[in-house]
Amino acid sequence: MAKRAFRTLCFLAAVALPATAAQPKEHVHSAQPRATEFEASFAGFEALPPAVAPAARAVDLRTIEPAVEAPRTTTPIAGGVASYYGRRFHGRRTASGETFDMNAMTAAHRTLPFGSLVEVTNPRTGKTVTVRINDRGPFHGGRVIDVSRAAAEELGLIAHGRDTVELALLNG
Q: What pLDDT digit, counting tens, does each position of 65-75 carry?
Protein backbone atom coordinates (compact mmCIF):
# COMPACT_ATOMS: atom_id res chain seq x y z
CA MET A 1 0.00 0.00 0.00
CA ALA A 2 2.83 2.41 0.91
CA LYS A 3 4.66 1.49 -2.30
CA ARG A 4 1.60 2.39 -4.39
CA ALA A 5 1.20 5.71 -2.58
CA PHE A 6 4.90 6.49 -3.18
CA ARG A 7 4.53 5.76 -6.92
CA THR A 8 1.45 7.98 -7.13
CA LEU A 9 3.28 10.78 -5.35
CA CYS A 10 6.26 10.48 -7.73
CA PHE A 11 3.95 10.52 -10.75
CA LEU A 12 2.11 13.61 -9.53
CA ALA A 13 5.42 15.40 -8.82
CA ALA A 14 6.68 14.59 -12.33
CA VAL A 15 3.47 15.87 -13.90
CA ALA A 16 3.40 18.97 -11.75
CA LEU A 17 6.98 20.02 -12.57
CA PRO A 18 7.07 22.55 -15.36
CA ALA A 19 8.46 21.42 -18.68
CA THR A 20 10.87 24.31 -18.62
CA ALA A 21 12.62 23.23 -15.42
CA ALA A 22 15.29 21.31 -17.32
CA GLN A 23 15.96 24.08 -19.87
CA PRO A 24 18.59 26.77 -19.43
CA LYS A 25 17.40 30.18 -18.23
CA GLU A 26 17.77 31.89 -21.65
CA HIS A 27 15.27 29.52 -23.31
CA VAL A 28 12.56 30.00 -20.71
CA HIS A 29 9.82 32.34 -21.93
CA SER A 30 8.54 34.85 -19.46
CA ALA A 31 4.86 34.43 -18.57
CA GLN A 32 4.44 38.20 -18.18
CA PRO A 33 4.83 40.38 -21.26
CA ARG A 34 6.76 43.60 -21.01
CA ALA A 35 4.65 46.56 -19.84
CA THR A 36 5.18 48.54 -23.05
CA GLU A 37 4.09 45.65 -25.24
CA PHE A 38 1.03 45.14 -23.09
CA GLU A 39 -0.05 48.78 -23.29
CA ALA A 40 0.72 48.95 -26.98
CA SER A 41 -1.61 46.02 -27.63
CA PHE A 42 -4.58 48.22 -26.58
CA ALA A 43 -3.67 51.22 -28.76
CA GLY A 44 -6.19 50.29 -31.44
CA PHE A 45 -9.06 50.31 -28.91
CA GLU A 46 -8.56 53.77 -27.40
CA ALA A 47 -10.71 55.66 -29.91
CA LEU A 48 -14.42 54.91 -30.07
CA PRO A 49 -15.90 54.03 -33.43
CA PRO A 50 -18.01 56.76 -35.07
CA ALA A 51 -21.67 56.83 -34.06
CA VAL A 52 -24.13 55.30 -36.50
CA ALA A 53 -26.59 57.75 -38.01
CA PRO A 54 -30.23 56.96 -37.10
CA ALA A 55 -32.44 55.46 -39.77
CA ALA A 56 -34.98 57.64 -41.54
CA ARG A 57 -37.86 55.95 -39.69
CA ALA A 58 -36.23 56.17 -36.26
CA VAL A 59 -38.33 57.63 -33.45
CA ASP A 60 -36.84 59.58 -30.59
CA LEU A 61 -38.40 57.93 -27.52
CA ARG A 62 -37.69 61.00 -25.39
CA THR A 63 -40.25 63.01 -27.38
CA ILE A 64 -43.13 60.52 -27.21
CA GLU A 65 -45.91 61.23 -24.77
CA PRO A 66 -47.38 58.05 -23.23
CA ALA A 67 -50.98 57.38 -24.11
CA VAL A 68 -53.37 58.56 -21.47
CA GLU A 69 -55.91 55.90 -20.66
CA ALA A 70 -59.38 57.33 -20.91
CA PRO A 71 -61.36 56.93 -17.71
CA ARG A 72 -64.03 54.30 -17.85
CA THR A 73 -67.50 55.60 -18.32
CA THR A 74 -70.53 54.08 -16.73
CA THR A 75 -74.06 53.76 -17.97
CA PRO A 76 -76.61 53.51 -15.15
CA ILE A 77 -78.94 50.53 -15.51
CA ALA A 78 -81.96 49.49 -13.47
CA GLY A 79 -81.15 48.94 -9.82
CA GLY A 80 -83.12 46.90 -7.35
CA VAL A 81 -82.68 44.17 -4.80
CA ALA A 82 -79.42 42.24 -4.81
CA SER A 83 -78.69 38.99 -3.04
CA TYR A 84 -75.65 36.77 -2.93
CA TYR A 85 -74.84 33.13 -3.46
CA GLY A 86 -71.84 31.28 -2.17
CA ARG A 87 -70.96 28.03 -0.46
CA ARG A 88 -73.84 25.94 -1.83
CA PHE A 89 -72.90 26.74 -5.45
CA HIS A 90 -69.10 26.92 -5.03
CA GLY A 91 -67.39 24.67 -7.60
CA ARG A 92 -70.49 24.18 -9.77
CA ARG A 93 -70.70 25.20 -13.41
CA THR A 94 -72.19 28.60 -14.20
CA ALA A 95 -74.34 29.37 -17.25
CA SER A 96 -71.23 30.72 -19.02
CA GLY A 97 -69.50 27.34 -18.57
CA GLU A 98 -66.89 28.41 -16.04
CA THR A 99 -66.67 27.07 -12.50
CA PHE A 100 -68.29 29.29 -9.88
CA ASP A 101 -65.85 30.67 -7.33
CA MET A 102 -67.53 32.32 -4.36
CA ASN A 103 -64.27 34.20 -3.63
CA ALA A 104 -64.16 35.90 -7.06
CA MET A 105 -65.85 39.19 -7.91
CA THR A 106 -68.55 37.75 -10.16
CA ALA A 107 -72.32 37.99 -10.45
CA ALA A 108 -75.42 36.57 -12.08
CA HIS A 109 -77.77 38.77 -14.13
CA ARG A 110 -80.75 37.81 -16.26
CA THR A 111 -79.94 39.71 -19.46
CA LEU A 112 -76.47 41.30 -19.46
CA PRO A 113 -73.92 39.57 -21.72
CA PHE A 114 -71.34 37.29 -20.11
CA GLY A 115 -68.14 39.16 -19.37
CA SER A 116 -69.87 42.50 -18.80
CA LEU A 117 -68.40 44.54 -15.99
CA VAL A 118 -70.99 46.02 -13.66
CA GLU A 119 -70.43 48.52 -10.88
CA VAL A 120 -72.68 47.61 -7.95
CA THR A 121 -73.22 50.28 -5.29
CA ASN A 122 -74.95 49.77 -1.96
CA PRO A 123 -76.40 53.21 -1.07
CA ARG A 124 -76.95 52.16 2.54
CA THR A 125 -73.23 51.52 3.14
CA GLY A 126 -71.83 53.70 0.34
CA LYS A 127 -69.59 50.84 -0.84
CA THR A 128 -69.04 49.99 -4.50
CA VAL A 129 -67.60 46.90 -6.20
CA THR A 130 -67.02 45.92 -9.80
CA VAL A 131 -68.24 42.45 -10.73
CA ARG A 132 -68.04 40.41 -13.94
CA ILE A 133 -71.22 38.74 -15.18
CA ASN A 134 -70.64 35.00 -15.61
CA ASP A 135 -74.00 33.44 -14.71
CA ARG A 136 -77.75 33.83 -15.22
CA GLY A 137 -80.22 34.66 -12.48
CA PRO A 138 -81.65 35.48 -10.02
CA PHE A 139 -84.98 33.96 -10.90
CA HIS A 140 -86.95 34.60 -7.72
CA GLY A 141 -88.02 37.30 -5.29
CA GLY A 142 -87.91 40.24 -7.71
CA ARG A 143 -84.13 40.48 -7.40
CA VAL A 144 -82.06 42.05 -10.18
CA ILE A 145 -78.59 40.65 -9.46
CA ASP A 146 -76.91 37.86 -7.46
CA VAL A 147 -73.34 38.67 -6.47
CA SER A 148 -70.69 36.25 -5.24
CA ARG A 149 -69.96 36.00 -1.53
CA ALA A 150 -66.74 38.02 -1.92
CA ALA A 151 -68.63 40.89 -3.57
CA ALA A 152 -71.40 40.65 -0.95
CA GLU A 153 -68.85 41.00 1.85
CA GLU A 154 -67.43 44.13 0.23
CA LEU A 155 -70.92 45.60 -0.20
CA GLY A 156 -72.11 44.73 3.29
CA LEU A 157 -74.84 42.31 2.16
CA ILE A 158 -73.84 39.36 4.33
CA ALA A 159 -75.67 40.42 7.49
CA HIS A 160 -79.01 41.08 5.77
CA GLY A 161 -78.73 38.57 2.92
CA ARG A 162 -80.08 41.12 0.46
CA ASP A 163 -80.22 44.87 0.00
CA THR A 164 -81.20 47.52 -2.52
CA VAL A 165 -78.36 48.38 -4.89
CA GLU A 166 -77.67 50.66 -7.83
CA LEU A 167 -76.13 49.17 -10.98
CA ALA A 168 -74.00 50.81 -13.66
CA LEU A 169 -72.55 49.10 -16.74
CA LEU A 170 -68.87 49.90 -17.29
CA ASN A 171 -68.06 50.95 -20.86
CA GLY A 172 -64.65 50.59 -22.47
A: 888 888 889 99
